[in-house]
Design a protein that fits this description.
The protein is mostly helical. It is built from three helices and no strands. Helix 1 crosses helix 2. It starts with a helix and ends with a helix. Its main location: membrane.
């Protein structure tokens, strides 16, 4: 059940990150989910590092850090994906 939640959270965070980033991203959905999952892990690591990973009630700081992590990872993933697509199209000609 943990992997299912990780995929759902990755999907939601990845899509939110794509909506926040300006312009159009060329990431496929499967890579958006993976970037969202990695961003969530990054946000959890940062929240643990600063000591706000487990608070009473809703962990708003942790959730915001997860979203910020997803935005960063989606931006990096999109840049790498776009560069890979450009490199493939120029070598195919």
């Amino acid at each position: 059940m943990g992997w299912l939640w990780a995929i759902i959270v990755g999907l939601v965070l990845g899509l939110l990150a794509k909506a926040i980033l300006p312009g159009r991203q060329s990431l496929p959905l499967w890579l958006t989910v993976i970037c969202g999952m990695v961003g969530s892990l990054l946000g959890n690591a940062v929240s643990t590092w600063i000591g706000v990973n487990d608070t009473k009630g809703i962990d708003w700081t942790r959730h915001v850090l997860q979203l910020v992590g997803a935005v960063v990872i989606v931006a990096i993933g999109d840049a790498l994906w776009s560069a890979r697509k450009r490199r493939r199209s120029t070598t195919a000609v």
